[in-house]
Design goal:
alpha/beta; D-Maltodextrin-Binding Protein, domain 2; 2 domains; 28% strand
Amino acid sequence: MLHRWVGAITLCALFGLGAQAQTSRTIKFVVPFAPGGTADILARLLAEEIGKARGVGTLIENRSGAGTIIATEAASHAAPDGNTVLFNANAFVINPHLRKLSYDPLTSFEPICQLVSSPQVIVVGGASTYRSLAEMLDAARAKPGELTLASVGPASTQHIAFEMLKHLAGVNMIFVPFNGNAPAVNALLGRHVDSVLLPHLLTLHFLLSSINFS
């Protein structure tokens, strides 16, 4: 674990003005990332507790892709009755500055709360020769355009943090975007990428599961 960047996951829901959730119906939690990542785990934990507290059914819908736009766009078309809850991250406010969207993040959704701030860490595989961030950056300088870093993206907090690191360190590395943390980890374990940027809690989970990170 080499360095950390701070990101955030924001919980948003589709409520009409003054609308109350229809508790006789199933509440759907839309997650814009692949299963097995931090947002997915948080959504499932929260859905379980809400289901117990309100006595309602809950459903997790993973709709990854396009830097969270696919899920966010789908959620924006849901009925504004409080039964659709969208999990999202910083990309929710980044994407409008990068491309034209069919929804307005300021008017199409009603924010509920910031659920968690998640520090990020860079990890390499157990077989890697890099044992510090300095060593990896030195190698990147020696082999410009060859070393790779995988993470959620594009246009994610992790992607922007990586571009900032490249700029500040003066290195040329390649960002490899994935639609979730779990696929990025699989790429690292398969030695298809040199490093991956992950939430620290997810990294700890993998380490406790005896996955050979360094």
